[in-house]
Amino acid sequence: MTQLFLNLLYLLILTLLSPWLLWRAVRTGRYRRDLSAKLLGCGPVPNPSSKPVAWFHGVSVGEIHLLVTIVAALHKRHPDWLLVVSSTTDTGLAEARSRFADLSIIPFPFDFSWACAATFNAVRPTVVVLAESELWPNFLATAARLKVPVVVANARMSPRSFARLSKVAALARRLLFRHISAFAVQSTDYAERLRLLGVPDSKLTVTGSVKYDGAVGDRDTPKGRELALVLGIKSPLPLTSLSPGERGTGTIILLAGSTHPPEEEILLRVFAKLRSQFPQLRLLLVPRHPDRFAEVAALVAASGLPFARRSQLTQPLAEMPAVVLLDSVGELGAAWGLADLGYTGGSLDGKRGGQSMIEPAGYGVPTVFGPHVWNFRDAARRLIDAGGALMVQDERELEMALARLIADATERERMGTAARQLVREQQGATERTLDVIDLVSRQIAHRGAKPQRNL
């Protein structure tokens, strides 16, 4: 009865939104790719030897990047398992196909009962691993009916999500949490919020954040060298400071990663002021969402600053212009390896809770972010306490903090070293997460339960 109600509710919402979805599909090409597989379920995933199947899911590009570390580690631990990866968004699927070229990649089904049933029947998973979130009631109910354990890896519960779910805690327990076998949680704060929502202690394991394990921090990579060549980035001179007589002797790259509106406008204003004082400064601007690339390009053009779009570069630049808009998918990691200092987005306007500052920390990039970082509160606090990052409250403080770091190469190096050391100290969450996955898989096997093959 619950699934029937949810199906009818989804159909009603889909009908009401159909004019807008159609307009978006025509304008951007979104929602059209893999539509039949999302609505009806994907085709069979080949498994001729009937191997155990681990189904990993990441909603979009960020979660797919998170899964890279877990998937590689599980393959090493269980080389005989078949691994399947799904994603919800078009960009997430494209990134999954790029990152996991030798694995089966499938679209995540819409939360209609028939689509979930058909996809489970096609994949036949032994265990499902969800990256951070993406909890859908029909999907979880299908897994429970087929006795397939579900693990939420790198689980988090932000203050905003906790406040929303607290209002419907009983419903969340019934439709979501009771169907999840285990939460591998990033921090004790997140675990406590899940506990207050009614998740039993037996399902909670604090593993730490897998993102620390994924922050490898190797700046000298083929992808990094290729990106540097394309963007016209020359190796900077080993400056110890930037006194007025030394300015202009080397390029300093500020990377603003995973930005949201109105951060691009703020950053462009701040950058224009700083560049008049530090002419060797360059800005690599990386919006969070690909569907905003054209919008941000228009903002940069309106600023009057010389700039280039990564997507339009067919030949390497002779010299990097003032601003490069990195309007590509999958190159942010390589770009962090080129940065001298950074800003992580989604942290100034109070609406989004920040983007990860762990990846730049792993590269030894001294990073600045705004006060709204509830999605990464623990990582932000640790980095600030270690002296590897700075929190600013507004545009004025952002300009002051960046100016100080640009002018002091010694301070940049000190902060970068502290950030990288912290990341190394926090690593190990991936192996603890695999232990959780193994535990729930063994429990199912011990009870003699096997996933049903047909519904």
Q: Can you walk through the features of this model?
A:
The chain has 455 residues and is α/β, with parallel strands linked by helices. The chain has two domains: 34-208 and 429-446, 3-Deoxy-D-manno-octulosonic-acid transferase, N-terminal domain (Rossmann fold), CATH 3.40.50; 222-426, Glycogen Phosphorylase B (Rossmann fold, 3-Layer(aba) Sandwich). The chain contains 19 helices and 14 strands. It has helices at residues 2-28, 35-40, 61-77, 90-99, 113-123, 137-145, 159-166, 169-175, 188-196, 210-214, 222-231, 263-277, 293-303, 332-336, 358-362, 377-386, 395-407, 409-426, 429-446; strands spanning 53-58, 82-87, 104-107, 127-131, 150-155, 182-185, 204-206, 252-259, 281-287, 307-309, 323-325, 341-344, 367-369, 389-391. The strands form two sheets. The protein has a seven-stranded parallel β-sheet, with helices on both faces. Strands 10-11-9-8-12-13-14 form a seven-stranded parallel β-sheet. The radius of gyration is 23 Å and the shape is globular.
Describe, in short, the structure shown:
The chain is α/β, with parallel strands linked by helices.
